[in-house]
Specification:
Structural class: mainly alpha
Distance between the termini: 40 Å
Shape: elongated
Strand content: under 5%
Number of strands: 0
Number of domains: 1
Radius of gyration: 17 Å
């Protein structure tokens, strides 16, 4: 569990390096990814094959945060939609009845246009990373 969390934090470090690249901030000291950096598409495709269902529900929540026109019902099964709705009031869903990962996402979920846009938007190292300015 901790390894996945660190990997996602490493994506944040890479994203910070990308975002700061155009700012030329003289106080920027750098960003350090302390573990391997994986593409979110790869992460969620693996999660869809395993026992973890909560992160798959939060994938839908993340997509909706970026694309308000996205409908979770187009991605999630009817079994998972109540869990998605529950996430509007709670930050975790594991206290409810467990749901197998293969019962969360609809068949062909990777082909959803919003999923593809979300993964493309969040792919690591799309641009040059900033490095600290030399003083």
């Amino acid at each position: 569990m901790g390894g996945r969390r660190i990997r996602l934090w490493s994506l944040v470090a890479v994203s910070v390096g990308e975002a700061v690249g155009g700012l030329l901030d003289p106080d920027y000291l750098g960003a350090v990814a302390i573990s391997g950096v994986a593409d979110p598409k790869v992460i969620f495709e693996r999660l869809a094959q395993g026992p973890s269902y909560s992160k798959l529900v939060f994938l839908a929540r993340g997509i909706a945060a970026v694309f308000p026109e996205f409908h979770a019902q187009d991605l999630l099964t009817s079994e998972a939609v109540p869990l998605y709705q529950y996430t509007s009031r709670a930050c975790e869903i594991t206290s409810g009845p467990p749901l197998a990962a293969n019962h969360v996402l609809q068949s062909g979920w990777q082909n959803n246009a919003y999923v593809q846009k979300f993964f493309a938007r969040n792919a690591p190292a799309k641009s040059s990373l900033a490095r600290p300015s030399s003083s």
